[in-house]
Design goal:
This protein has about 260 residues and is of the alpha+beta class. It is about 50% helix and about 20% strand. The longest helix is centred in the N-terminal third of the chain and has 61 residues.
């Protein structure tokens, strides 16, 4: 009986230690989430107020003149601020969606999803200069959450269009390929654009980080894209040579459909 009591006590101790370890891990995750939320709220309030203040200022200035050319110039600047605000709100909505909505999976045709995304991006500046290639899609379909994969691909494709090189006679190329490696589906989004400076690469997936002054977004896009990939059980990686181009790799686990 004494041996059994000792054994039961040891089992109870092990259970308590395991529960304490789980509690510490949960507490650590909660602290990390709270820090992230504080940073998010602070940056969101700033990035929302800046374009609104700009619009209000332009409205006030436009009242001081009756010249039509001046009004047109002010309207163009207001439009830019509105578009910037709209893009930021979309990023916030993607962030919220990825955090709170449960994963729902189905078969996704990679080429078709890219085609749909590019159709919505066709209004983007210099879109007509880009040639798109899909010949390297060895894996044509993936079983995953369509909304999150769309968030990832939309960010990568829109950035590839936005940060292309503007060389006379040069052709902008975006290539989407895929393959299966060691139980994972790898989707590559490759471009021959500006590329990313080496010193910027370690921080490229940080929240609110902008790798270039040309960025019009809030610095949430790539952060959200990687978080979405992690929620899918995968990850997002980047390789880039400044002035040569960039390759983003989406890694997704191969999961059998029900």
């Amino acid at each position: 009986m004494i041996g059994r009591v000792i054994s039961d006590v040891k089992i109870a101790e092990l259970r308590i230690r395991a529960q304490m370890a789980e509690l510490e891990e949960a507490n650590s995750e909660l602290m990390e989430t709270n820090e992230e939320l504080d940073k998010f709220v602070y940056s969101v309030s700033h990035d929302l107020s800046a374009p609104l203040k700009s619009i209000l200022g332009l409205v006030n200035v436009s009242r001081m003149t009756d010249r039509l050319p001046d009004h047109r110039m002010y309207f163009e600047k207001v439009e830019k601020s509105v578009l910037k605000l709209d893009a930021f709100i979309k990023e916030v909505l993607d962030y919220s969606y990825n955090k709170r909505v449960a994963i729902q999976t189905e078969w996704i045709d990679i080429r078709q999803m890219c085609t749909d995304i590019l159709e919505n991006l066709s209004f983007t500046e210099n879109y007509d200069r880009v040639r798109f290639e899909y010949d390297g899609l060895v894996v044509s379909q993936v079983w995953t959450d369509p909304a999150r994969l769309r968030i990832i691909l939309n960010n990568l494709l829109s950035n590839a269009i936005k940060y292309q090189r503007h060389e006379e006679g040069g052709e902008a190329l975006i290539r989407v390929t895929s393959e299966s490696v060691d139980g994972s589906t790898l989707i590559y989004v490759e471009d021959n654009g500006e590329g990313i400076r080496a010193e910027m690469l370690p921080r490229i997936f940080e929240m609110f980080f902008r790798a270039t002054d040309k960025s019009k977004g809030a610095g949430l896009g790539l952060y959200i894209a990687r978080q979405a990939a992690l929620r899918l059980g995968g990850d997002l990686f980047v390789r880039s040579k400044y002035g040569r181009g960039t390759i983003f790799t989406i890694s997704l686990p191969v999961v059998e459909s029900d």
